[in-house]
Every structure is written in structure tokens, then in C-alpha cells.
Amino acid sequence: MRIVHVSDCYLPRLGGIEIHLRDLVQHQRAEGHDPHVITTTPAAPDVVDEPWVHRVEAATGPLGGLVRADADLRRLLEDLTPDVVHVHVSVLSPFASTAARRASWLGFATLVTVHSMWSRLGPLPATAHALLRLGSWPLAWSAVSETAAAPLRRMLGPGTPVHVLPNAVDPASWRPGGVPGPPAVPTVVSVMRMTRTKRTLPLARILLDVRRRVPAEVPLRAVLVGDGPQRPALERLLRRHRMDDWVELPGRLDRTKIRSVLADASVFVAPAELESFGIAALEARTAGLPVVASSLSGVTEFVEHEREGLLGATDGMLATHIARLVTDASLRERIAQHNATVPPRHDWVEARRRTHELYAQAAATARMPVRGLARVSAA
């Protein structure tokens, strides 16, 4: 199949959508498909893109930019003639949203995957739904977890199915050789883009609370991997509370270095409440770490309380859980044993199967037959 992925966000920008989309394209190419990516994210300086990456340049004004991007999108769709258009959207994805409408009304089989939580956004989703009549678009809808699908289902109404299409990991690349041994100093790790949505500053306050709960004679270390607009404020907070001598900020790391950080850790924490899935948490769980996460997030898709980790609805509960895992070696080792020896069900074999299943659903929903429709359905 020729598959066209459309996303406002792509490499070199790093985040959940960007990482998942890159991995999905790599797996589809390995299967013999012909995936392409259309994005408005600018290229990295002095880096030549693969020929299947198409970057659309938007003008400075938002309206003019969308008009130009829409024209370029239509030209690319006509040139590429895809069997399926797979649109990846977040909370604010003007180009991808335009692409979903354009592709579906041109008759292309179109699947939209929502990678964010469309809750706590005030009247924005309902207003968009009312103005654009999203439920009437001839396409298939999906979200990356049941948690993310729930507000989308409420918005679109009972007549529009919303499927679940989870993210995935390659277990073989993350599973440890055995059950990880305890590090010399109990170490709490988090991997995130340092933004308000990911709750960067609340995480620092949670760690401060953990330090107060753990006996003074027990050493404690934290490693917060990532970068983003909240990093300067985080650095100031750590200095103000004299935490910078035990909380490390190594910045953005590649996957090889992240594996090394996880191998020398005791607990992984994912504090975001609006986390639609949590790829970093899934990677840590696959690497054998107990995961502490918000019970309001999509991490519940693969972490069950007291089995793969501990879940809490408040920052105080998260601090309690982290302190408990730091000081209770038997609990920590039991969860680590399970996570290191039982692979998660969210692997790429299942993700590829489910993705192509929903491509067939998108083909069945399309307004008119398109090239490769029978081939999509068969896949």
C-alpha cells in the first residue's frame, strides 16, 4: 500500500506523536509498504530528508499559511495518490485537521488518530464539532487509549465509532538481560518534554515531598531526562529548594542513552494527568522498572495498580507511592520481576495488525472507491 501520514508535528521536533510516527513509518517500510509523511515541521539545519518526507511551508499569517498549506497538500495527494491517508492530530493541529477534511472529502480512505486528551479544553472541542460537523466527515476515528477515546466519543456522539489504536514499543530493544539489580543509590527517573502539560514543575515538588517522606539516612537521586520551555523554571525551582545536588538534568537523550539511564534506576514516574498514552512510561515498564503514574492518564492502558506499578490521582498519592517503592525493596523487586519477565501486549506486531485493520475500516467509510480499496481491505 501507499500510505500518506499527515501531522503538524514530526522530526526533528521530539514528542510522542513524532516518535511514534517515525517508528510506524519504519515498520511499514520494513513490511514492504510505501509510507510518506507530510508535515509543516521545518527540517533540521544541514540535514537532508528521506525522499518520502514532504515538508509544507506555511506562510507567516495563520490564515494565509493554512491556505497555502492546503493547496500544497492537495497537490501532494494528487501526485502521491495514496491508498490510505493517516492523519495524526493533537490538541491544536490546524494543518492535520484541514488535511483530514480535505482527504476524506476528496474520497481518500482516511483514518484520524487523536494522540492527545480532548478533555479539560473548555468549549473548544464542542465548538469545533458544532461548526465543522466532525461526525459527518467520511472517515474513521481512533485514539491512542481508552482514556483518550472517552472524551472524543462524548463529543462526536453515539453515531460515530471511535476505535482505539495504541502506541507501541519493540520489547526486544528495551527488555533487560535479567531482572535489574538495585542501583547503589535509589534513583527516580522521568523522561518527558518539559512543558506545563507534562507537569514539569509539579514533578519537582513531588520529588521534594518524596525527599521529606524518605528517612534522612536513605540517599536519594533523581534524573529528569528531556528539554523544553519549562526547563529554566525547573532549574530555578531546584536551586531555590536546594535540590540541584541530587536532581540531575541531563537534557534530551537518544534512546541508547535513555536505556542506560533506565538500567541504573529504581522507579519511573509519569506525573502528567493529560497523558493520552505515555510511550516513555511504556518503555520504562518494558525495561523492568516499576512505574508510578497518574490514574487519570492513558498510562492505565498498560499499568495496573500493584502489578506493573502504582497509580494515584493526586500529587500527594504519587509522592507516597514513590517513597514506598524507594523504601520497600520487596515490593519494588516484585514489580520489577514482573515487568522484566512479562512483555507488554503493546508491541509492534499487534500495532501493525491493528493499524491495518483500521485502514480497512477507513476504506469502508470512504465516500467513493479509491485506488487500492480492495487491497486495503484485504490487508
Automatic annotation (TrEMBL):
Q: Can you name one GO molecular function term for this protein?
A: glycosyltransferase activity
InterPro entries attached here? Glyco_trans_4-like_N (IPR028098), Glycosyltransferase_grp1 (IPR050194)
Alphabetical list of CDD domains matching this protein? GT4_PimA-like (cd03801)
The Glycosyltransferase subfamily 4-like N-terminal domain covers 15-172
EC number(s) stated in the UniProt entry for this protein:
2.4.-.-
Please tell me whether the keyword rRNA processing is annotated for this protein: no
Under the heading SUPFAM superfamilies, the entry gives: UDP-Glycosyltransferase/glycogen phosphorylase
* UniProt name for this protein: Glycosyltransferase family 4 protein
**What species is given as this protein's source?**
Nocardioides hankookensis
